Amino acid sequence: MAPEKLPYKPNPRAPRAVLPVLEPRRRASTPEEVALGFTPEQAIAEAQRCLQCAKPECVNACPLHIDIKRFIRRLAEGDAVGAHEVIGEQSPFPGVCGRVCQHELFCEDACVTGKKWDPVAIGSLERFAADHARLRAHELSPNGSKKPQGPKVALVGSGPASLIAAYDLVRLHYRVTIFEALHKLGGVLAYGIPNFRLPREILAEEIARLQNLGVEFVPDFIVGKTATIEDLFDEGYQAIFVGTGAGLPYLMGIPGENLTGVYTANEFLTRINLMEAYKFPDVSTPVRVGKRTIVVGGGNSAMDAARWARRFGSETIVLFRRGRAEMRARLEEIEHAEEEEVQFHFLAAPVALYGDENGHVREMECIRMELGEPDSSGRPSPVPIEGSNFRIMCDTVVAAIGQAPNPTLQKATPQLITKRGKIVVNESGETSLPRVYAGGDVVRGGSTVILAMKDGRAAAEAIHEALSS
User: Fold this and answer.
1) Whose CA is closest to 42, among 103, 105, 132?
2) Are the C-beta atoms of residues 142 and 56 closer than 8 Å to each other?
3) CATH number for domain 249-403, candidates 1.10.260.40, 3.40.50.300, 3.50.50.60, 3.30.750.24
4) 56 with 444: CB under 8 angstroms?
5) 7 pLDDT band (50/70/90 cuts)?
6) Could you tell me whether strands 380-384 and 361-374 are parallel, antiparallel, or unpaired per DSSP bridges?
7) Which fold has domain 152-247+405-468?
8) What is the predicted pLDDT for the residue at 241?
9) pTM of whole model > 0.85?
10) Alpha-carbon distance 464 to 239, whole Å?
11) 334-357: per-residue pLDDT in tens?
12) Residues 6+ apart with CB under 8 A from 231
């Protein structure tokens, strides 16, 4: 039965709804999700802050072009299921994107309400629609899709770029297979993003939707090792999409980096997020976190690592060579880290690590920085201040200073044109090899989930055009 339709009363002047969060003290001992989501009353009130613009700029700003105006109207009228259906026209991942997409850089930045007041909390409303649909899943009709019978397409990697490409292609009746090198699905969504930001059951349920549509997943399969690109074509795949991400971490390049207790963010987060080291001692892949942890970097991975370290009971310091304003991490994640008593040392960078007689890190030497002229990133460049060296005691260090594309497939496919490890593509996402496409971090370098999805959608469109012509 359709829900009773509520009257729509736009009220953009109303204060933006504040997302409820888990109490900071409780966070220190649990991997539970921090952001708790809107109540139904909050969701309706926030949705009614939308002006329902004649030309909604937020839709064009969304990399997936979700009909934001229409789904918010449904929420404002009390129809959360209808809102979820509208989102599903373009994305099967509202639970994921509602939590980890940087809406503030896209749809919310373009929100017309935000020109005069606070922008509508589009991301939180997307999450509410997804969570409401999960609670009512037993009432919804089961998927009755027929098994796809079209041409075979292989997608390499099960991260966000491949997942959205699979969604678009399977709905066009292609037989889609996703090959994943790891034993669990989701790519960076599984190994890079903590449970307290993206609960694993949310990710698993949204991936299951693709399986219900007919997408096949093959884990523990390394394209470039288990089979090559050529092997896949020989097996009848008519197009291939490479979405292998950026899994090769940058190193700090300082003395002492090989000491015990020094991790890259990739290793640290993978062992905790994917291998569930936070469940110690009931795990086969534990991770040692000492009494004081220093995380080097200012992006989302740095915040994730620092916040995990706090949950292991470690005093945690984030060391960043620029100032707070230059951090690339989401403001929400920085604020949550501060609430969880993560300390921040700005305008400082590591120059050496020192260990004890057993080879375990015990101390970091740093140098203070000042901001100079803008560099290629557009941010002020950090300039070392001569003679300003100082030391900090520590027994765990996590380097979260960025990553490059995983090189396995590229090395096995030397005819694939690359530049600094990134696969080169044309405007349609096609590589130097015919009917081989690529997108996401393997093309962009370390980027965002939603831009990876944008690439996957563009590649799916190009694959369909190529195979249907």
Assistant:
1) 132
2) no
3) 3.50.50.60
4) no
5) confident
6) antiparallel
7) FAD/NAD(P)-binding domain (3.50.50)
8) 98
9) yes
10) 9
11) 999 999 999 999 999 999 999 999
12) none
